[in-house]
Specification:
Elements: H1 3-7, H2 11-40, H3 46-55, H4 57-85, H5 90-121, H6 131-139, H7 141-166
Helix pairs in contact: 2-4, 3-6, 4-5, 5-6, 5-7
Length: 168
């Protein structure tokens, strides 16, 4: 066995890592959206939501951190799929990677709106005029739903292209 063979990771191992990352993505999404946001966000009441965020600042920041871990896992999944499917067809693998990364960019950008109320409520007085707007926009379930709906077609197309290519 040469050193090149020893340093090359097997496709089966990469596929298992991808599966673990998928599971981690699902669990972190459920935790951040269902548990953290579900406990802090009061739909239709920006003042109560702002109070909850300030009262449970660390918990809110934990939710944001978990959202970022979710996105890091999704980016790693996209890179692994690209690497796994490259031998079967580089162009389809590249399209799947592009779609996956586009979905990641959209969801990551929407997560900036998640953390925005904490920045606004954190004491910068010149930003206080935006408290109501940010609290309604950033912490509403509508924002999370919008980001999910906006990024879902990209992730769906990525999954379909990966599925079709893996069955060739």
């Amino acid at each position: 066995m040469g050193t090149a063979a020893m340093t090359e990771t097997s496709p089966r191992f990469k596929a298992r890592i991808t599966g673990v990352l998928y599971l981690l993505t699902i669990l972190t999404g459920i935790f951040a959206q269902g548990f953290v946001s579900g406990r802090l966000v009061v739909d239709g009441d920006a003042a109560a939501t702002a109070t909850n965020i300030l009262t449970h600042r660390g918990f809110f920041q934990l939710g944001f951190t978990v959202y970022l871990i979710e996105m890091a896992c999704q980016i790693a999944i996209t890179a692994l799929f690209y690497d796994l499917l490259k031998p079967a067809g580089r162009s389809v693998s590249l399209v799947a990677a592009f779609l996956g990364l586009a979905g990641c960019v959209i969801k990551t950008f929407s997560r900036l709106f998640y953390i925005a109320p904490l920045l606004v409520l954190g004491g910068a007085h010149y930003l206080s005029v935006f408290i109501d707007v940010f609290a309604k926009l950033a912490t509403s379930s509508a924002n999370a739903t919008f980001a999910f709906r906006l990024s879902s077609p990209f992730f769906t197309c990525q999954t379909v292209s990966v599925s079709l290519k893996s069955h060739d």
